[in-house]
Design brief:
The chain has about 140 residues and is of the alpha/beta class. The protein has one domain (about 1-140): Collagenase (Catalytic Domain). It is about 50% helix and about 20% strand. The protein has helices at about 20-30, 45-60, 85-95, 100-115, 125-140, and strands at about 5-10, 35-45, 65-70, 75-85. Strands 1-2-4-3 form a four-stranded mixed sheet, sandwiched between helices. Helix 1 links the parallel strand 1 (about 5-10) and strand 2. Helix 3 (about 85-95) crosses helix 4 (about 100-115) and helix 4 packs across helix 5. The two termini are about 20 Å apart.
Length: about 140
């Protein structure tokens, strides 16, 4: 599975994560959604980088925890996911979660998007949060 994952840090220290465990977890979540893993890149960055990506590619002028670029085809999921560790930290603080738990939530959030789960339309955020919680239970 190591060929399918790229873990990149851009302007931030690489988070201390059990990448092997996370890769197995991501694979199990994808399988639970009837998907197969293709190439996946996680780019850990800071707020200045995430807003630059948001402005350049999405014409959005705000900070966010993750931006997912979806290259999936059918059941094969593939994508690049930019994660702002600054926003993850501030979100963790605002919701009373640990930084590590919030980072795992954001990591799997991108995968759930690649599996076809959205969070912008009516009722979709509740579905996404439910799926995140199910996935987080699989990690533990």
């Amino acid at each position: 599975m190591e060929n399918r994952f790229q873990w990149i840090n851009d302007g931030v220290e690489m988070p201390r994560l059990d990448f092997e465990k996370i890769e197995m977890w991501i694979n199990s979540v994808a399988k639970a959604h009837g998907r197969i893993l293709g190439p996946l890149s996680y780019i850990f960055c800071n707020d200045p980088k995430i807003i630059e990506v948001n402005r350049q590619f999405l014409n959005h002028d705000y900070y966010t925890d993750i931006i997912t670029f979806d290259y999936s085809r059918g059941k094969l999921i593939s994508g690049d996911m930019f994660i702002s560790l600054d926003t993850v930290a501030s979100n963790a603080e605002s919701v009373g979660a640990t930084y590590d738990l919030e980072l795992l939530r954001v990591i799997i959030h991108g995968i759930l998007h690649l599996c076809g789960i959205n969070d912008k339309g009516p009722g979709e955020r509740a579905i996404m949060e439910h799926e995140e919680n199910i996935a987080l239970d699989l990690y533990n």
